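input
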Amino acid sequence: MAIYQTAVYRVKPQAVDKVKRAIEEFVQYVKANEPGTRMYVAWQQQADPTQFIHLFIFEDAAALTRHSESAAVKRFEAIYSPELVGGDVVFTDFNQVATNQR
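output
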C-alpha cells in the first residue's frame, strides 16, 4: 500500500541557496536509486523563500525504510539540519483521496 507523506521545514535566510543545491542533488539521487519512491517533489514557498515542503509517494513501507535509512538521506540531513529555524522537520502522513496522476 502506497505511503503519502510531506515534510515541512524552514531554514536560515543565508542557508537558502545551500539547501536548494542539496535538495537538487538529493532528488537526483532518489531518481537514480530509489525505484520504490514513486514521487519526490520539493517546493519552496514564494512568500517566504526560507520555507520548504517535500512531497513523497512511497510504493510501500519497505520503500520508505530504504529511503529513510539511505546514506544519501544522512548526507542531506547533515546539510540542512544545522540550518533549521523554528523547529525540526515536520513529517505528516496522508491518505490519498483523488489524483490526476496516471
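quick obs: The chain has a mean pLDDT of 97.
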